[in-house]
Amino acid sequence: MNSLNSEAFALFGQHILWSDMIGNLFGLAALALGWRRSIWTWPVQFLAGLILFGAFFGHLTGSAGKQAVVMLVALYGWWQWQRGKGRTADGHIAVRFATWRERGAMVAAATAGTVAVALLFKAYPTLSWDPWPDAYIFVGTVVAMYAQARGMVEFWFAWLLVDLVGVPLNFANGYAFSGFVYVIYGALVLWGMRDWWLRSREDARPVLEGAPA
């Protein structure tokens, strides 16, 4: 896996690593599939995590551990969508806005999780070179994936909040390709948010008896 950490090319004076490029391209594809409400978003997210885990394992233990958690959440998302509950007439997962109780629970979990993970990173400096932003992005990603697994429109809001920190952090730490990908993430997030928002209103409409699906 050391070859994954070698330089693929240079762009605008930034060194692009193979692991950074391949893993994030899969992550970008997973987000696009999530926009389309395709169940294949989860295997692609799992594969992206697996590639980055292999690249980080034995080199950056904390980053490898984070990818392991991402893979577990991807398996949960696959299981959740595979169950077949809450599907629309077109066979895709139905989307909705979270209840205020669910929103409060996710905000509380994100806040407590960020503090806990940041303190862990500070206690073990080898796990992260920038504990607080790194913890924020990691926990925010997990919360976003959980909301996606539950078909919540808030999934996109969570990703947008992750992007706001992820773009400058990746450029600052030399992961230029991740930074560029996060910019594209931002555009996809806005389009996906609009699409899921509109679909949530359509899915909430009652179907009249005898009307076509």
What descriptors fit this protein?
213 residues; mainly alpha; two-stranded antiparallel ribbon; 2 strands; 4% strand; globular; disordered C terminus
Structural notes for this entry:
The chain has 213 residues and is mainly alpha-helical. The protein has one domain (15-197). Helices cover 69% and strands 4% of the residues. The chain is built from seven helices and two strands; from the N terminus they run ββααααααα. Strand 1 (7-11) and strand 2 form a beta hairpin.
Radius of gyration from the alpha-carbon trace, in angstroms: 18 Å
Biggest sheet features: 2 strands, antiparallel
The stretches of 5 or more residues where confidence is low (pLDDT under 50) are 206-213
Side-by-side strand order of the widest sheet = 1-2
* Average pLDDT figure: 80
What's the number of helices? 7
Distance between the termini: 50 Å
Shape: globular
The H/E string reads EEHHHHHHH
Helix content: 55-70%
Count of domain modules: 1
Secondary-structure class:
mainly alpha
Total count of strands: 2
Transmembrane segments: 12-33, 40-58, 105-124, 136-162, 174-193
Keywords: Cell membrane, Membrane, Transmembrane, Transmembrane helix, Transport
Protein name: Nicotinamide mononucleotide transporter
Subcellular location: Cell membrane
